[in-house]
């Protein structure tokens, strides 16, 4: 099956400088929800139009695109992708702003299409208020669709309406596209007209119309996000994940979470994130595109592009940036930031530390206030801290520099040269004491005040 997604619309009611289909639901652009669904059934093509280059920037490399320069209706959009259509293959038509459609629904639609050898099979639903929808007209064993603006008063009473989602035979589509015309109230080429041309058209009535709800404005965007959020959280809870407060928890559709993990309130988990079993995530935590093992605790922290092994604790108030790898039993504490750094097993950075472009060995203790000075204003440089080293509090490690295995860096040191194994490194001025100096200073200040 070929899957053609129509995503060329203006989206005026979004009141945005960005195309409608790139607006996000739970951190994922709507167009990508639809592409991921389409890929389950076959090769995907997308018809782009308004601000096409922006839309293309969100598409996977294996998705073909077709330009509709002027938005002249759904039929015209399919005409613009004529070369995508194969006469020997079925074509599923989807929309870039309809993100909640389920794969089971497409499977049922395809089953009817195949079993009845239909030229076209339409997904329809019963609308309490059908205003604005094309009506499904069933007459003399045939099916046709009449758009609302072209419908008679009696046809407007019909409540079975068109979702806009179809499966066409490729040969039927190619043979009939040129028969479409724009002699209608909107002056557009309607894909719906092809249904009336089919000798064998079928329709599946969907019992869950919310699946085919589109987004026209930001109110509808928020409404669909709320529905999507509830569905995702329900699926996770039914699979063995504890969501303490579903109202304040936001989890993207591509996130995978293991059994007996607990997600606390005010937590956001986005992108291609995987979290293992028996973890404790949150509260007040955001995780993006990260891989987290089993029995990991992350509290009041931000993680993006991070890989964490088992039995690690993070936070509170930590920021782990892209390229961070935490090995087993690592402890990252409050107000610690990492970037492109690997922290070895059993190592700790508990307080007020920055580790950038660093490789930290096993059983290392990084004291409070330690900084890897990895940037000289032009280039980034690496820091290597070997196994069982001890970095005293308030130390600055000026990269490139290596701290040897078992070495100790004295608190308050500025280290600019490599430290050999098992050595003590001190990089601070010798302490000087001037007895009575403070008392003399106070007396001098008091005398000056008295003379005024």
TrEMBL record:
Q: What sort of enzyme, by top EC class, is this?
A: transferase
Ligand binding (Mg(2+)): 97, 216
On cofactor binding, the record's note says: Binds 1 Mg(2+) ion per subunit.
Q: Which Gene3D superfamilies match?
A: Hexapeptide repeat proteins, Spore Coat Polysaccharide Biosynthesis Protein SpsA, Chain A
Entry-linked PROSITE patterns: HEXAPEP_TRANSFERASES (PS00101)
Write down the required cofactor(s).
Mg(2+)
**Its Enzyme Commission number?**
2.7.7.23, 2.3.1.157
Instruction: Tell me where in this chain the MobA-like NTP transferase domain is found.
Output: 3-125
Q: What is this protein called?
A: Bifunctional protein GlmU
The organism is Fervidobacterium gondwanense DSM 13020
Q: Which gene encodes it?
A: glmU
